[in-house]
Amino acid sequence: QVQLVESGGGLVQPGESLRLSCAASGFTFSRSAMSWYRQAPGKERELVADISHGGITNYADSVKGRFTISRDNAKKTVALQMNNLKPEDTAVYYCNALTITQRYWGQGTQVTVSS
C-alpha cells in the first residue's frame, strides 16, 4: 500500500521559513521522481519543485532562489525547504511520487503566510 505522509506545514509571517517533509512507503522510492505541488483557494494545482531519482531538480519560476527540494533515499523522504515565504505562497502543499506505472499523492499540508 502506497503512502505519502506530509508534515511541517503551519502559519508563518512573511519572510520566515518552513520545512516540509514527506515520508514515503509502499513503492520503490529510489527509482521514483518526487515532486511538491501546491493548490491555493480558487486556483489550479501547480508544480512547485521536483527531483528526479538521480537528484536533478527543477523549480517553478515563482520559487526559484527561495525553495530547495531534496531527497534521502535511505530514509525514503523528500523535503521542501521554503525560505523568505510570501503571502502568495499560501496553499495546500502536496507530495507527489511518479513511478514507472503510476502517480501517487499525499493528503496535503496547509501552509499559510500572513502577518
Tell me what the structure shows:
With 115 residues, the protein is mainly β. 0% of the residues lie in helices and 52% in strands. The strands form two sheets. Strands 2, 4, 5, 6, 9, 10 and 11 form a seven-stranded mixed beta sheet that branches.
Short note summarizing the structure:
This protein has 115 residues and is mainly β. Helices cover 0% and strands 52% of the residues.
Report mean pLDDT, rounded to a whole number.
97
Number of helices: 0
- Which structural category fits the helices and strands? mainly beta
Biggest sheet overview: 7 strands, mixed
Global morphology: globular
How far is the first residue's CA from the last residue's CA? 40 Å
Question: What order do the helices and strands follow?
Answer: EEEEEEEEEEE
Task: Give the assembly state of these chains.
Answer: single chain
- Low-pLDDT runs of 5+ residues are none
Q: What fraction of the residues are assigned to beta strands by DSSP?
A: over 45%
Instruction: Please tell me how large the radius of gyration is.
Output: 13 Å
Tell me how many strands there are: 11
Helix content: under 10%
List the helices and strands and how they pair.
Layout: E1 3-7, E2 10-12, E3 18-25, E4 33-39, E5 46-51, E6 57-59, E7 67-72, E8 77-82, E9 91-98, E10 103-105, E11 109-113
Parallel strand pairs: 2-11
Antiparallel strand pairs: 1-3, 3-8, 4-5, 4-9, 5-6, 7-8, 9-10, 9-11
